[in-house]
Amino acid sequence: MIKKRILGVALLFSVTLFITGCNTNSTSTTASSTNKTTETSEKVDVNQLDLPQLDPEVKENEDLVELQTDKGNIKIKLFPEIAPKAVENFMTHAKKGYYDGLTFHRVINDFMIQGGDPKGDGTGGESIWGEGFAAEPSNQLYHIRGALAMAQSQEPNSIGSQFYIVQNKDDMSDGLLKGWVPDKIIEAYKKGGYPSLDGTYTVFGQVIEGMDVVDKIAAVKTDENDKPETAVKIKTIKILQEAKS
C-alpha cells in the first residue's frame, strides 16, 4: 500500500516538509463543511473576529480534553462551533477509546507531532462515519504554536482519525499581511507556529497546558522516516468538559 501524505506546501529552513496523511477512502462523498467563519478577509474585518485560541479560559461552548501520554499530559480545548465535524470525530473516538495505546508515529522537531493512526505508520485510521470528510478551515483558527489540527492526504474528503499538534517555536510572523491575518494572530506567530498550513487544514483545538510535554515528544530521537526510535504512546484521552450548546 502506498503511503499517502498531507499536501505540505509549508517550508521550514528551506526544506519542504510533509505530514503523513490518513489512509481514508479518496472517493468519499462526504459533503464539504460550510461555515460562516470561512468568509474571505476581503469581506470580513479579521481584527473583529473572535479568536478563541488566544484565550486560555475554557468557555461553556468549548470542549476540554486531557491527552495522557507516557511523556506527560497535555490539556487541549476544542472548538465545536467552528470545526464541528472535526471535533465530533475526535471526541467520539476519544470516548470510545479509539486512541488508547496508539503512538505518535511521525515527529518532526520544530514542526509538529502527529498521532492517531492504529497502524502506526501514517497509512491507517478512519473517521467515526467510516469514510473521510472534508477540511473545515476557518479565519478564526490558525496554526499557531500549540494548535491541534486534523491530518489529511492530497485527496479530497480524506480526513480520518490522524491529528497533529504544531510544535515549532520559531518566529513565523514575517511576511504575514495585516488585513488578511488578524494582528493578534501575527503577534502569536512570533512565538511559533506554521502559517503556511492555514486555509488548507482543519485547526480544531489549542493546547492550554502541557506544551512542555509536546516539546519533550518533539525532541525524541527519530529514524529517517521521522518515526520515534522508541515509541511514544497515548495512554488515553480523558474528557474533562463537554461543550454546552
Task: Supply database-style keywords.
eight-stranded antiparallel β-sheet, 11% helix, 245 residues, two-stranded antiparallel ribbon, alpha+beta, 3 helices, disordered N terminus
What does this 3D model show about the protein?
- With 245 residues, the chain is α+β, with helices and mostly antiparallel strands.
- It is 11% helix and 20% strand.
- It has three helices and ten strands.
- It has helices at residues 84-95, 183-189, 211-218; strands at residues 11-12, 15-16, 63-69, 72-78, 106-108, 112-115, 147-150, 163-166, 202-209, 234-241.
- The strands form two sheets. It has an eight-stranded antiparallel beta sheet. It has a two-stranded antiparallel sheet with strand order 1-2.
- Strand 1 (11-12) and strand 2 form a beta hairpin.
- The N and C termini lie far apart (42 Å).
- The relative contact order is 0.26.
- Overall shape: globular
Query: How much of the residues is beta strand, in percent?
Result: 15-25%
The residue-averaged pLDDT reads: 87
Q: Compute the number of strand runs.
A: 10
Order of helices and strands: EEEEHEEEEHEHE
Q: What structural class do the secondary elements suggest?
A: alpha+beta
**If helices are DSSP runs of H or I spanning 4 or more residues, what is the number of helices?**
3
Main sheet makeup = 8 strands, antiparallel
Radius of gyration: 16 Å
In which range does the helix fraction lie? 10-25%
Enumerate the strands of the largest sheet in spatial order, edge to edge or round the barrel.
5-6-8-7-9-4-3-10
Distance between the termini: 42 Å
| Contiguous runs where pLDDT drops below 50 for at least 5 residues | 1-41
